[in-house]
Amino acid sequence: MIERPRTRTQRWLDRALLALGVVLFVSPAISVFLWMLSLAFKNEVDNLAYPPVFVPSPPTLANFAAVFRENNFLLYFWNSVVVSGVSTLAAVLVGVPAGYAIARLRARGLLLVVLVARMTPAISFLIPLFTLFQALGITGTLTPVVITHLVITVPIVVYVVSGYFETLPEELEEAALVDGCTQWQRFTLIAVPLARPGITVAAILAFIFSWNNFIFGAVLAGRTTRTLPVAVYNVLTFEQVSWGPLAAAALLVTLPVLVLTVMVQKEIVGGLTAGGVKGG
Amino acid sequence: MTSSDRRRLVAFIAPALLVVLAVAVFPWAFTLWMSLFDWKIGSASIFVGLENYVALAHDARFLWSVVRTLLFTALAVVVPLVLGTAAALVFHQRFPLRGLLRSLFTLPMMATPVAIALVWTMMFHPQQGVLNYLLSLAGIGPSEWVYSPALAIPCLVMVDVWQWTPLVMLIVLGGLASLPIDPFEAAYLDGATRWQTLRHVTLPMLFPFVLVAAMIRMIDALKTFDTIYVITQGGPGTASETINLYLYLQAFSFYQVGKSSAVVVVFFALVIGLSLLLFWLRRRADYA
User: Fold this and answer.
1) Chain B interface, mutation test: which of A10, A39, A123, A246, most B Cβ atoms within 10 Å?
2) Which residues, in sequence order, are bridge partners of residue B38?
């Protein structure tokens, strides 16, 4: 950036304008989350009050208690952990070698398949797979949900990891080759440890987008195999809608993702902008 | 690299390729095939050729869903592009707490869509919603928000803009960081004002990045499902029923596999067609 000579007044004006811009962009982004917090920690009377009460006083945990009392929330939480965990792990197992090979073979054309998979609406995967799972008689278990989540996780991992391997110098691996390593050893002993940051980002992104996915679970899951987003949506439809528990449930679903995002912000930004990935 | 090395590397790709074949390529082939049948789950399937497509061409409800999808997409691409580029110019400056503020700004795109859609649903509520209260503070009368057929789409666009402007910002910010410094120096030496530099140097050089953002945004906007499904279910009536919502209804409420497969094929053709159009625009921009 070029520093221009500015008078003192101009500098103050610049700063004020910049501050205004930051406030204008950041405040809408966070106010929705603050409102979610407010709804989740207020009692039902305050939640229905008009004009609305903004700050819960005193804050109550009753809404969270209600969520856990009226729903099998721990089961759904566990379902989500299993579905996102297994589908991410599987994606890393098949996606990292593939990403490596694509980078070393300079076969970026293969990424076109990934791109097309990303362009396909999720429902179009669901109709054939739903039919297939019904024929196989495995609907109602977690297996079909895990399998469909591979549609989200595998492309993310392949895309982000291959991009990362491309930035690693090949010379290091050549040296290993001279030392008599096989291709597989060269991959596992040299390339993978070097690419660990890239693999971590890929896994985190895959996990988040799998965690956030709604439609696969909504179509494929039964009463006991719901993932968290599906369970939260059902809080909306099946009960007398009371806002406190609804906001509490929404907060519980998305809090792990938000915490993860803030914690590994810098790394995630790099991975996201490389592929512009988004699941579902 | 020797040819045996290459062959071994191809083996590295095989497992992932197998997964993609099973969960993506098989569904594509199956869908294309099924769109030629009259088949409802639970009854026999009858080969009908292109009849499903002909029926769609005469199905007013489907055609309106296409129009709504295009309207939603146009708005949900253009608005985030403008706001996201502006936000990138702001976050490109140096100021205290920039990292933290930037990560707060990107929270909407990472948050679980169903969760934030529920919060928006509560905010849109005409009687107890906080948005009407905020309007009243500004001296504006209450709005029906998503309960009004005319406002349903604009309101859903607003949610989408809120959610996805950060992605555009990140892409354009990455572009800003990669720009060479020489043109800026030249502009400065030639006595260009800051506004002239922005208008004639920065923005033109950012154009390729904005186009990438436009492409990603367009694909995502066409596919939007979660927020619409949670907030309006396509209503009121069919006022916000996009292709995706129509498709969901046909497939998983009516179990019309044949018909919904035809919808998928048309939908997919639309996504590919519009993407190619953007690709072509980008090519042309490169040569110009």
Assistant:
1) A123
2) B46
